[in-house]
Write a structure and sequence with these properties.
This protein has helices spanning 2-12, 14-31, 34-38, 49-60, 79-93, 130-145, 157-191, 194-219, 226-263, 284-319, 327-358, 369-377, 381-391, 393-408, 429-440, 442-445, 461-470, 502-513, 525-559, 562-588, 593-596, 608-637, 642-675, 680-712, and strands at 66-72, 98-102, 113-114, 117-124, 151-155, 416-417, 449-453, 475-480, 489-495, 520-523, 604-605. The protein has 734 residues and is an alpha+beta fold. Helix 7 runs antiparallel to helix 8 (194-219), helix 7 (157-191) packs across helix 23 and helix 10 (284-319) crosses helix 22 (608-637).
Amino acid sequence: MVLEHVGRWVYRRRAAVLCAWLVLVLLGGVLGGAAFDRAKAPGDRAGVESTVVAQRIDAAVPEGKQITVLLSGAEPRSNDMINRASQVVYELRALPGVKIVTDPYTAGATDMFGDQGFAVQIEFDPTLSDEAALEVAAQAEELLRTIGFPEVRMGGELLAEQLFIDQAVQDAAIGEGVALVLLFGLLVLVLGGWLLGAIPVVTALAGLAVSLLALTGLSFVGPLSEYAVNVVTLLGLGLAIDYSLLVLARFREERAAVRALRSTGRGRRGAGSKPAAARSPGRAESDAQDDVASLLAVTLGRAGHTVLISGVTVGCALAALLLLGDPMLTGMAVGGLIAVTVATAAGLTLAPALIAVTHHRISDPGQGWFAARRARRRVALLPRLAEFAQARPWPTLLGGVLLLLVLASPLLALQVGNSDARSLPDGSEPRVVHEMVEQEYPDLAVAPITVLAEIGAGDELVGDLMQQLDDLPGADEVLMGDALPDGTTRLVVIPDGPTTGEVALGLVTRIREMDTVAPVTVGGPAAELLDAKDQLGARVPAAVLAVVLATGLLLLWLTRAPVVALKTVLLNLLSLAATLGVVVAIFQWGWGSSLLGFTSWGAVDITTPLLLFMFCFGLSMDYHMFLVARIKESWDAEPGDRAANDRAVRTGIIASGPVVTLAALAISFVFLGFAAGQLTAVKEIGVGMTVAIVLDVTVVRGLLLPASMTLLGRLNWWWPGTRLRVPASSVETG
């Protein structure tokens, strides 16, 4: 078997493997950080109507980034304040890089007066880079402070985007640091030694450094999405820890089995080592090396098989995001594929190499304070849940399904939207400005719908078109905008309500469907959200079908059991629906928001359900494969009647349950680190992934899996036409 040869090769070339990884890690440490600097916001969705409108306007009349400055705490209409503010605004308009200044004093925008202050909007030269625009913004803030208002706050798209990027990096650094420290302590406690705890953590950190190095290299080939960096840190750490734990646990199990057999004088021929009686003292050292090489061969032949299948499964789920054609999701898919590839490579090479050089200091299973205490008390989560489920299969199955359906019920009320300043931390200046504008300057808070009419500005049909638009339900006001150089007339429709609310979305739909006096195209934030929903809605079924088929076929290939594969897919879909329902209840409805430290904005980011589906579906398959592969091995060793099936289920879960539980707990630590971050959009993913793992390992794998397999009995292993069996050595045992 190929992976068995890999295990022997890694042992014999362990120094070279570690040196190669060390070089890559050092390069990642030096160059990988550039990925954060070179990452950019994702581009627009290609081909949709709102993007076409934005590109036409940008080509004809380029628009720069904007900021909004709110000055408050004094009477804005006093003569003295009018004189001082007007003078400063004129100076502000003269700053290099400032294109347009809109204010109530010199531009006549009286709706920018508030009860105790006023607002200023600044548009920068479109040729300025974000860094240069931020420098000019700082100069503008300093100048505006000289007016004398006690409070000066800055917000807007430019500052919100910058804060989002900075906060994402900060959250990732803090989340990773805290998670890894807690994770190391957990692994040391559970596994029974600091070295055992260090192997998965070192493997994960090395994988992260190499993944960032790969992203930096990718940034020189094409644009790198800032979301690719986030996914690498989130997914890469979790998978690398899972895979290295699986390899480490299998090595300890195989070595303990060899020692147990040798203590009886029988040896372990299946692992490739000689009986103790056949080995002379002069060859002890050589035989010991052969034993470790053989153990690593068996370890990778079984655990490595599952690592590889798991990596391919998660990769298939992430690759399906590419089918959606969304710039943000594409960036995440690219980052995820890099993370999965590196994590799989680390699990198959770096973790075995670390084991090879430290094997003499790796204890057997059952050693250590926690392990001994657990053995005395027979504390094992999955085996105890499985015992309960097998004793009461029908009540367990019905109760578990009902629980998941109840948790999934909020999904029926799902509302999605594009994250804006409201996803920033509570109290952050751009978010405070956004909220103050909505409350005190409602005319500034609503972004208009842009309508491009293919007629000249002087055509008499323009008036008819404006009247048509004004008569539509939800249209508050219709204004004439600047004509484009190509003769197109630009009209601005102000919706009655929030920028991307239901009224605005319905208004966009009605404009596009109505029989206008001249051809029109519609753009603006509401149109962008509607186009995103339509595009994703049209492509999601194909992407979901691709993921389900790919993962189902992989599981079918692993188990040669169609019933098991089909049941797995159904259980995964049910678990994911429950996870998304919990996310809706928390982030859309605000249940428990105070405990998690955020304020709900009444919707879930449009990408969150899709990301959670792809991420969680792949990760759920991980744990299912760990369990089912061992169950399959037990069944192949002793096939028979319903009782044999029940024994196989019980044996497989007892054998693989502890490592699955530990792996799930470990990866939950990583996800909780991101859930503790300040960005709502990132928090949605962190909380959702944690909920998915907890539900999957307890309700689905701990209860529904053994209950359903007990009820199905021999039907679990049915194969059309013939009984095709898989040798025990070809599947992973966890």
